[in-house]
Amino acid sequence: MDTLVVSRKFWVYWVITIPLTLVTVIFWHFWINGSIYRLWGKFLERREEKRLKESVDEKRLKESVGEKRLKESVGEKSLKESLDEKRLKEIV
């Protein structure tokens, strides 16, 4: 009579199936309750807020660099005076 033999690597089956089953059950639970959509929505909102903040910060940086270059090119005059002169030239 033949005997049943179990491979020495049978533990790999349990290492894979138990965590995968737990992840599947947890995901299913969130899916059924609809909270997966709320979590995904919050993630997208935060990502958009971060992107907008970075674009505003980048714009401010560009403006500050432009002001520094303008100050360097103006020399002794204040930035406000030079801007007023430029506006007057544009008007005239």
Please name the defining characteristics of this protein:
single chain, 92 residues, mainly alpha
Write a compact overview of the structure shown.
The chain is 83% helix and 0% strand. It has 3 helices and no strands.
Task: Describe the 3D structure.
By secondary structure, the protein is mainly α. It has one domain (about 10-90). Helices cover about 85% and strands about 0% of the residues. The protein is built from 3 helices and no strands. The chain is elongated. The mean pLDDT is about 75.
Ordered list of secondary-structure elements with their pairings:
Elements: H1 11-33, H2 35-74, H3 79-91
Number of domain units: 1
| Number of helical elements | 3
* E-strand count: 0
| Unreliable residue runs | none
Q: What helical percentage do the residues reach?
A: over 70%
- Tell me the radius of gyration: 32 Å
Instruction: Estimate the global geometry from the Cα principal axes.
Output: elongated
Strand content: under 5%
Order of helices and strands: HHH
> Roughly what is the average pLDDT, rounded to an integer?
77
Q: What's the N-to-C terminus distance?
A: 109 Å
Overall structural class, as computed from helix and strand content, comes to mainly alpha
Largest sheet: none
